């Protein structure tokens, strides 16, 4: 029964988005033009659920090349209005268009000659009447069976905000490079564009042990390199297996002697590997899909060339570029 109810909610919300799509016309083009002509920032305001949706729309706009910030209408009337300049454009969100706190802000915005775009489900509302442009987000019905909780209307408003952001992105000819510049904490994008050979550990930094060594030697290497794993190779440096911290813990929990254990008994044979010419993004995808944190890098005949750790790809550790 609950699955059918969930499907009904999704159907109702999908109908709402399609209804908003059908409302689109010249007003949407005017809204895009107004924002494109704005020399400063797009200020987004709303209260309650509309305010939460507005914060998400603002975040999306900032990511995609349209400078924006969210302004709470109550805080605006208690000093934050000083953040708004006459050259800004305001996107005011209220499904009813009769939200007292939001409409109370409109007079102050008009005094500053600020242009206003309304996003409302009521084109005949006070908000729409005070706006330069009105975007109609009216939906046939809410998914809430009581018709009280904003559900379909907030989904449709959020979707229209995405449509606005994407339309502006295309008008600005915003590129992937620009997106990455806006996500330096998302310098993850930059890190993942490089080849594996540029970021893998090589030489003496690789946690490495011979398949002829004692198991306690592997434990010592694990402890010294502090990498979470040690790779096992033969006398021709071909990869034979891998031993992780977890393997050692499981051995101890099984009450087996470290001295008496052999590497071949504990290591994982034929571990997942990657080659040096693939991208760091490929390495991350493999790690995520296989739920592992370490990848040996191999060449022909499985000769070990390096090793990668998930932390290096995600930036939690030092990201090493080889010279």
Automatic annotation (TrEMBL):
GO terms for biological process: carbohydrate derivative metabolic process; carbohydrate metabolic process. Belongs to the SIS family. GutQ/KpsF subfamily. Residues 31-174 form the SIS domain. Zn(2+) binds at residue 72. GO terms for molecular function: arabinose-5-phosphate isomerase activity; carbohydrate derivative binding; metal ion binding. Residues 200-261, 267-323 form the CBS domain. Keywords: CBS domain, Isomerase, Metal-binding, Repeat, Zinc. InterPro entries: CBS_dom, CBS_dom_sf, GutQ/KpsF_isomerases, KdsD/KpsF-type, SIS_dom, SIS_dom_sf, SIS_Kpsf. Gene3D superfamilies: CBS-domain (3.10.580.10), Glucose-6-phosphate isomerase like protein, domain 1 (3.40.50.10490). This is D-arabinose 5-phosphate isomerase. The keyword Isomerase applies. The record marks 49, 101, 142, 183 as: Catalytically relevant.
